[in-house]
Amino acid sequence: MGRRIRVLVGKPGLDGHDRGAKTIAAVLRDHGMEVIYTGLHQTPEMIAETALQEDVDVVGLSILSGAHMTLFPRVRAELEKRGLGHVLLTGGGIISKEDMQALEEHGYVQLFGPGTATDDIADWIREEMVKRWKNEEIPL
Amino acid sequence: MQDLLEIVERLFAGDRGALARLISWAENRDSRFPAALGQIYPRVGRAWRIGITGPPGAGKSSLTNGLVQAVRARDETIAVLAIDPSSPFTGGALLGDRIRMEERTQDKGVYIRSMAQRESHGGLARASSDACDVMDAFGFDRIVVETVGVGQAEYDVMGAVDTVVVVLCPGAGDGIQAMKAGLLEVADVLCVNKSDLDGADRLILDLEDALRLRRPRDPAAAGAGAMTPPVVATSAHEAEGLDDLLEAIDSHRRHLERGEVEDLEKIRRGKRIAQVRRVVGERLEEELWSSSGHTATVDSLLEKSITPYDVAEEILGSVLGVSPKTP
User: Fold this and answer.
1) Chain A, window 101-130: residues with a beta carbon less than 8 angstroms from a chain B beta carbon
2) In this predicted complex, what is the ipTM?
3) CB contact (8 A) between residue B95 and residue A36
């Protein structure tokens, strides 16, 4: 009982490969999280609006289309536009080391590439949220 | 306190972020929620609440999406509360009802919230009524509550909404299923979805037959006031029959508002009484088993091979301050 971590798992853009997103959704579910799965072809606006309506703690995006350098910043901007700067944004996909580094420097906290153990992702999310909740970093 | 006033003010100003956060407070049993509900309660009671229930895969989410579309075509606003099951083992949940409604996300006249049922087992989540109250106070014209996929006997939705729609689809049982006690009895409107599939006509006939054989829920109101639930055919996939469904819901609403069976206020108050009883029951259960040592007492009494009934009498006696019943 008590508080549960709410995670939005989505796939932005023109990318129909959702096996990864579904796998992550199932893994986070099995780690006791409440996962809102939004399906394919989401725009950054839709993702941010869903995050707002669902009051999620985490947004996790799967991008295999190569458009990650455009999509992650746009989702971040749309979240901030709605006062959701506190939401933990993360994701994964086929992303080169250089791009990952660049995105992480812009404040996407952490990205996960192919080969990551799924439990590590769940553990990382939980640790981050426990830290934030302890410090009451979630604004109204 | 500052938080509370701020969030209520934002809710009244139409801020959907505040709406979402208040629902989270209700869900997480945040200590600020009861006071917040107190602040907004005067604005609760204007929205018409519709429950959509039925077995898994009957098309509840697709139908809800269709209903939202029909309601928006009339320029009314609508909020959706979609409940999905939680794992009994991990507590986790996969909330996937939004997938059927994604084109509504950007519409300012629509709000959709997914909710895990958590520790409840009656088809809804514990915080469902609270969430509806918050949506109601926000100012939506209608609220749709979509239950988890139910079996034959999950009735919580009855206590939480004004009109219950039970959704069925062809291929899930014969005419005797339609005659069984349970889920079908709670319907104010029966909806046969996937009406484009084989067997839909047969199911409609079976349901209509079963309804003819049924005594009204309130025998005192038999005759003039009683309303037999209509059977509406829809195909959410083909966007057919959705206006008929909305019309059937509105017809039930008019029927209740005319007060021929019972005063609407009285019906709603009855549901509030049930809600209070539920909350009292939950709190008692928590208080009783949280830290007071009753569990240890039960354990040690059972060790002396006293039956569960005797142990229960013992516990009740000590809690209520009466001596145990002697058989």
Assistant:
1) none
2) 0.91
3) yes
